[in-house]
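Posting for a labmate who doesn't have an account.
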Amino acid sequence: MTEHARAHRSDANPRRSRGDRLAVLTLCIAYVTAFWGQAARLLPAPLDQWHSLLFRWIGPWWRQHVGVTLSNGEQLALYQLAEAMIVALLLPAWALHRSGRSWGDAGLRLPDRSALWPTLAGIGICLPFGIYLSRVVPDPWGTPLKEGIELVLVIPEHLLIFGVFSAWLMPAGRLAKPAGRFALGREQFFVILATALIFGLVHIGVESKLVLLASFPLGLINAYVTLRTGSIWPAILAHWTMNVVPMAWDMLSGRWLLAAAALP
């Protein structure tokens, strides 16, 4: 389907377009609330044992049948990855197909050369956050397997929040490829604020309040870089760099492995 045909299809049926946007908003709410269960860590036992909305019921079966040799943190990370694959990949794929849009319309495309400087700027801004948080948050790392799973988890998270949801908020219903000078208009500003807020809400219940406070400005950076480049990959690269560089430093210094060895 051509770009013109997609635009005509969307404009010709505004009721269906509103329904599609409502569906994507529902997916984002579902994704956020799926991780709101992390707030249970603030509750007394035994309520502090479920860390995801459905894990309260699925958790006992999951622990007995999936990754029985893994630690608690690794089992939870694996479960969250499976949950994200459904909410942030399979269901958005259906929503995109239903509306006649492609993954490229949601930013799942390789960036062009013009994305180089926005990507480097995103990395340059995000990296100090990562270094600072790794210094002030006690025991910031889990086991290597858990951290690896959480790096993979960044992809569906960015695709849903900064890709699919951003596209549906844009007037054209898609993330446009960069063409000439980027103009930050009212619509783009609203999209950046809305997606950064959702990104921040995902982090409710994390053990460190500093991580929660940092999630909103980091969401602003990720949202801007995604809109500026028309692709989710530059912001994902900035997110990965923010985590991997301090992680590698702590690995070389022995701080990470010593902390991970003490985890249940």
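Reply:
Got it, the structure tokens are right above this. The CA atoms of residues 168 and 263 lie 41 Å apart.
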